Amino acid sequence: MSRIVPAVFTALLIGSAINHAAATPAERLAKAIQFETISYQDRSQIDLEEFRRLHAFLRESFPRVFTQLEVETVNDHSLLLRWPGSDPDLKPVLFTAHMDVVPIEPGTEDDWDHPPFAGVIADGRIYGRGTLDDKQGVLGNLEAVESLLADGFVPARTLVFAFGHDEEISGLEGAGKLAERMLEKGWHFAWMADEGGMLISDNPLLPDKDVAIINVAEKGYLTLTLVATGEGGHSSRPPKTSTIGRLSAALERIENNPFPTQMVGPVAAMLERMGPHVEQPNRFFFENLWLTGGVVADRMSEDPMTNSFVRTTTALTMFNAGVKENVVPQRAEAKVNFRLLPGDTPETVVSYITELVNDPQIEISYERWDKVPGVSDYNGGGFAVISDAISAVYPDAVIVPSLLVATTDTRHYIDLTDDQYRFQGIRVASSQAASVHGTNEYIAIESYENSIEIARQMIMLAAR
């Protein structure tokens, strides 16, 4: 009960007593958390009215942005904003984020220190679902633009901001439709910045330095459906090999034979740039990957935290079979999810898995995950702009390119942009990053305010 009373009080305070445009950035983010813009896999469960209420709040909170920029609502629930530059010959730059959040896992509600949609500010933190993923990205960009407009800043280069509403369930109706609209307008961007990178305060290799991770690539996504068919019937007369047994044996072969390790370009670049800052013997290994890359990749594969950087990963995620305890099913189905390293393709994965399964009574099918982004330039261009913006706020941070092992809305924009980067200037500890999609998601107020300043710097530098 002691946790609930402050939460209710804070919700009432933020919800009614505060003029949103006059509130602090922390208070505005806390209020945005209260809109339950949840993306459910079953789209019929989504309360789209929450997105309309969030839009109204954003318009009230950032009056300069929504009156001085060109604003369009796309597919009813996503937002597209354009800030025209003074030099039309310069290629524009795109900044993206998403307004939706994932659900709270049923049964975990009481594990939160504060209710996940109360928008509680306490202990120097803002608590709630979306504080890291990704309402801080939406509001952080808007805070930066609002303040620059107040300062009279005029960009030379046109800037565009795209905020989707269904990234957590593939982004087809949000970022996908935003991209279609921008293609219709004939826009093409020098580069873009999306979510997916941040500053880590406690990297085990550099415990005394902040490491700023700018992801220049992300892994591909593929789910295979395996279906075993065979003889069923009464459990008193079971077949020699059941569909469940057949499929289980295949899954065991898949899980026990992971893809080989590889040292791909973005990960090698990350380690090489960390090399001068780490102690021996890691310094030698990182600075001589031409010789040691295989050994380093094998070592990284032994740790679940780094394994995803050096191999296409395999995850058994679903298994369905049977309708009654005394009936042997004629059909068993499983799904296996893969996150692909750059260079691996759905075809190479299917070929590898088909050879492993080696069973004509198991059918393997999949739907393609189209438009996997390539590896972007990490020696100049947008990477340099983001790096300079980070250094303006965190001058001692070690800035590295890297590979995002998850997926983002970025893939929807690859036909519009020359290079795609993933970075938002929040600073977190490794344990805190684990709260994304989990329990007790929060952001420190100082981290959030610094991320807004990084966004300001990115916008000003990009607009030159």
Which terms would index this structure?
single chain, alpha/beta, 464 residues, six-stranded mixed beta sheet, four-stranded mixed beta sheet, disordered N terminus, 19 strands
Description:
The structure is a single chain. By secondary structure, the protein is of the alpha/beta class. Helices cover 36% and strands 22% of the residues. A hairpin with a 2-residue loop joins strand 4 (121-122) and strand 5 (125-127). Helix 2 runs antiparallel to helix 5 and helix 13 crosses helix 15. The radius of gyration is 24 Å and the shape is globular. The N and C termini lie far apart (53 Å). Mean pLDDT is 94; it is low at 1-17.
Structure classification: alpha/beta
Alpha plus pi helix count:
15
Helix content: 25-40%
Question: How does the major sheet shape up?
Answer: 6 strands, mixed
Strand order of the largest sheet: 1-2-6-3-7-17
N-to-C span = 53 Å
Overall geometry comes to: globular
Please provide the count of β strands.
19
Low-confidence stretches: 1-17
Radius of gyration: 24 Å
Q: Strand content of the residues, in percent?
A: 15-25%
Mean pLDDT score: 94
Quick structural summary:
By secondary structure, this protein is an alpha/beta fold.
Topology, pairings included?
Blueprint: H1 4-17, H2 25-33, H3 48-61, H4 63-68, E1 70-74, E2 78-83, E3 93-98, E4 121-122, E5 125-127, H5 135-150, E6 159-164, H6 175-185, E7 189-194, E8 199-200, E9 211-218, E10 220-229, E11 233-234, H7 243-255, H8 265-274, H9 282-287, H10 289-301, H11 304-310, E12 313-321, E13 327-328, E14 331-340, H12 346-357, E15 362-366, H13 381-393, E16 398-404, E17 417-422, E18 427-428, H14 430-433, E19 442-444, H15 445-462
Parallel strand pairs: 3-6, 3-7, 7-17, 8-18, 9-16
Antiparallel strand pairs: 1-2, 2-6, 4-5, 5-19, 8-9, 10-14, 10-15, 11-13, 12-14
Helix pairs in contact: 2-5, 5-15, 10-11, 13-15
